[in-house]
Design goal:
TIM Barrel, globular, 314 residues
């Protein structure tokens, strides 16, 4: 039996790249000689999720309990879980960030900020970055056409500019982009990067319509969503997970290869008191050594764009 060479075929959208830096990553030089660039990301979605209240005729999942109500009924319980994030959780987290002088990136759904403008103002006054998480916390692969996605992108940009006073220069869809997302971002202009990938420990460039486009990868693993996933990890395990990731990346930096690490957070989950205490523990361990660069993603993107061409490859 003879097998033909494997091909990805002609599916729409960018071709897959399973090679990346190919075992020869750049010898990154972060500001101040930092060993790891750490990006704390707050996913602010509360109120923009699917709900009967918003006229969607369905409920959102990801509450606190391992239970899913039939979409024929309005799930006040799950709605209330999200409301905790915007009423209480986000303020506890913002207070922590302010206490330790940490600047973060908000993956912010525009509609969520429209519903709670005080959070948009707090992003601005706290020196955090608003990165667009869409007009709503949508599933873009269900859009009817690229035109519908374009409309959502433009609406989100203008809304976030209005609620935070800052035009978002980064983009992150819910879970997955579409085949046209990066082309639409390039067409819209004004974007430094997107985070619609979890495929590397370093930023990288892709070509979009003949131009360089930067991807700053995100993570689903160093993410508080793992805490509420049934049977996955508890609070001590989450803190240990972060500690181990930082420790391993430090070792790689000592061998000459500094990396990027993202930490994903959600106000409805990490904003709960006991979980916030773990977030405090994590932040203290990140800040104390002084060898990490805790930065907004737009800062990381600008540094990469300005300096990466001069870095030697491994």
């Amino acid at each position: 039996m003879s097998l033909s060479p494997f091909s990805f075929g002609d599916a729409p959208g960018p071709r897959r790249d399973v090679v990346g830096y190919g075992g020869r990553p750049p010898r990154v030089e972060w500001p101040g000689g930092a060993k790891v660039a750490v990006s704390l990301v707050v996913n602010y979605e509360e109120g923009s999720e699917y709900s009967h209240a918003a006229g969607d005729g369905r409920n959102e999942g990801q509450g606190e309990l391992d239970y899913r109500m039939d979409d024929a009924y309005r799930d006040y319980g799950v709605e209330s879980t999200y409301e905790y994030g915007s009423r209480a959780g986000i303020w506890r987290m913002l207070s922590l960030f302010d206490e330790y002088g940490v600047k973060t990136t908000f993956f912010a759904a525009a509609a969520a900020l429209e519903l709670n403008p005080a959070v948009g103002a707090a992003i601005r006054t706290g020196g955090h970055e608003p990165c667009s998480h869409g007009w709503r916390w949508s599933e873009p692969w269900l859009f009817s056409s690229p035109d519908e996605e374009r409309e959502h992108i433009r609406a989100a940009v203008e809304s976030i500019r209005r609620t935070t006073g800052e035009r978002p220069v980064g983009w992150y869809w819910r879970y997955s982009p579409t085949a046209w997302t990066r082309e639409l971002l390039q067409e819209e202009g004004g974007f430094l990067y997107d985070s619609d990938a979890v495929n590397d420990d370093l930023p990288y460039f892709v070509e979009v319509k003949g131009a360089r486009h930067l991807v700053v990868p995100y993570t689903y693993t160093v993410n508080d969503g793992r805490i509420i996933a049934k049977g996955y990890m508890g609070l001590p395990e989450f803190a240990d997970h972060v500690r181990r990731a930082v420790g391993e990346l430090r070792r790689e930096a000592e061998r000459g290869y500094p990396k990027l690490m993202s930490i994903g957070l959600h106000p409805r989950w990490m904003g709960q008191p006991a979980r916030a205490s773990v977030l405090r523990e994590v932040i203290e361990e990140l800040v104390a050594p002084g060898d990490l660069w805790i930065a907004r993603r737009d800062e990381i993107a600008r540094w990469w764009i300005e300096h990466s061409d001069s870095w030697a490859r491994g």
